[in-house]
Amino acid sequence: MSDDTSALRTGREAYTRQDWSVAYTQLSNADRQEPLGGTDLERLAVAAYLIGEDDAATEFWTRAVNQWGRSSDPVSAARCAFWLGLALSLRGEQVRGGGWLGRAQKLLDTTGVDCPERGYLLVPLGLQRLAEGDGAAAREVFSTAAVIGERFADPDLISLGALGTGHALIVLGRHLDGVAAFDEAMIRVTSEEVSPIVTGIVYCAVIEQCQRIFDLRRSQEWTAALTRWCSAQPDLVPYRGQCLVHRAEILQLQGAWAESMEAARRAHRRLTQPTVHAAVGSASYLMAELHRLRGEFAQAEKLYTEANKWGRPPRPGLALLRMMQGRVGSAVACIRREVDETLDPLEQARLLPACVEIMLAAHDVASARAAAAALETLAARLDIPYLHAVAAQASGSVLLAESQAQNAVAVLREAWERWNLIGAPYEAARVRELIGRACRELGDVDTARMEFDLAAATYRDLAAAPDLERVRTEVGTESSASPLTPRELNVLRLVAAGKTNRAVAEDLFLSEKTVARHLSNIFLKLGISSRSAATAYAYEHRLVEPSA
């Protein structure tokens, strides 16, 4: 058997088992010996794309288009032109991508064939309508694509149609219907009916949209599933990088800042090598946020600038950075402009909490109250747990600024309970600090000191230097240290809620062995020996609230 025949067979086998690097190497070797046919060129293009060899993928898809053209198969040529156009567009090369998509349409126009490729070419049109904010038109386009997919039993097209329909419904404000469409797309993805490129697109888009609408439960579940999918294919580049970004965002919320930073850095490396992917802007922004929270302002500023360069607007982080730098006037101007220019309710929900904080720093309580009221309205309208927590925190902080300490305590206790249920230790610590200030105004010095101590312990463990310094100033002395790390506190809260080690592991994206080790450390640090004693400690120290 000749070497080129062996390489071709090995490359095809590797492609089938999704060993992308071997498929790329072996098919490339075979191609050098004797030019590949259209089908194998498509395989080679896909393998190149999935391992991040974008220029090579472009070359092989281009050759596949030409090869199918010479074979008088315009439908297959149009299919390859579509994937090339989509790949170029996804990495930000809109003009080149649009050119190839236009060529795909022209190729189909030369035939009278009814084929799934006609449905695929509706996808860019639907994306254009989404970019224009026309949810109704986008929904119609994607629904038509899905119908064509059903007619031809094409799972890729059906999934892309469901994905686009869900996005359109989100734009229309029909979040529950949108999520239902996402779930439909994910059923096909998780049952392995869908090709790798479409699988990655659906995973990343659904997670992004779930985070956009603050559906943290789905975001965490699908991120865990994406992590497992990527782990089974270690050569993946574009989706593995985006997977790390999503994971880093979840880790930040959970208070695992060091792990979040490491995941964001790894994502940044993957998304810039060998070529730059658009998602690198999200990795840059996340790293900027972590640096800001730690008081590392120069690094934060540099990364906000980089995020903006790659298409991720640095909001609201940059405005909060200006506030923390003492440039309150600049922060006010920035956040006012952002809020005034933003019409999307979900984007407003991201900006308004920062607006409340900045306006209070500027002693503009009236503007802070207006922003908090707008946030309360959005939370009631969208009915999302995360937004209810944010809104309660914002309202409590405004009540405190208005010298309504008693009312503030009640609202802030609600905010703390909501953040605790979500599992967000930093946000919970910010609320504890506010409760401490309110209790001090009410003359309850002991409770105030306890709340300040608990907040300071979390800030210290997270290395949140600006927050820790603020609490020290409030108290006038350094607060006592916490014996538990943020991760151990998360484990303890879940154990106190009655969850098994397996359930805790699933919630925190850990192995059961790691959870057992954390629990052992908790027992040792607290001088206890049972889960019931750990639960008692959690309730005694108000790490969880008694059930009603």
UniProtKB/TrEMBL annotation:
Pfam families cross-referenced by the UniProt entry: GerE
GO molecular function, one term: DNA binding
UniProt KW keywords: DNA-binding, Transcription, Transcription regulation
Organism per entry: Rhodococcus oxybenzonivorans
SMART domains recorded: HTH_LUXR (SM00421)
Coiled coil: none
Protein name per Swiss-Prot or TrEMBL: Helix-turn-helix transcriptional regulator
PROSITE patterns, per the entry: HTH_LUXR_1, HTH_LUXR_2
Start and end residues of each HTH luxR-type domain: 477-542
GO biological process: regulation of DNA-templated transcription
